[in-house]
Amino acid sequence: AQKITQTQPGMFVQEKEAVTLDCTYDTSDPSYGLFWYKQPSSGEMIFLIYQGSYDQQNATEGRYSLNFQKARKSANLVISASQLGDSAMYFCAMREGQRRSQGNLIFGKGTKLSVKP
Amino acid sequence: NAGVTQTPKFQVLKTGQSMTLQCAQDMNHEYMSWYRQDPGMGLRLIHYSVGAGITDQGEVPNGYNVSRSTTEDFPLRLLSAAPSQTSVYFCASSYSPDGPNYGYTFGSGTRLTVV
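The joint structure predicted for all components is written out below.
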């Protein structure tokens, strides 16, 4: 079973509008972290936002926010006021566990976001 | 600039050739890993290391070897390249105390084509 599921292979959004990218996860570990990365066409992986399983509030970083619904095991990325530069591939990832040896990131398959002018 | 440095950026190999992808970080990160990225597959873990002298396999380790003789370096060796190893390879490192709340710093990637 997939541990990270991104059900939207591709999405379009109009410039200046908000967009939500979906991510669901599967883990039995009570301690985990959820990450979103952006990969523009140039190929680098850019860290956007982090949410810990024990965090009481949803994470926010500028125009990015994470809609964390723990009971539903979802961690959707919300981008407000989309810009043309937001066109990229977006990956949701999870890191499980408290022990140092459990530090691997598990990635979803990604969502390609295209922002229309 | 501090970060993760991968070399080369591009490489074409013939089937059966061997090569080493280099990865170096200068952030004193204990945790290092190699991922491969294929279209529609996301990033999949090849090998990882929790410190010098310690390595372990990830999801797709076949055909690859790693070693970690120093904290800074984590090279990935392709023993006998196959067309199925055509991919983009990312090296990543992380500061990793106990707890999941540290993400990775990624290198810029190596685009490998095996013909």
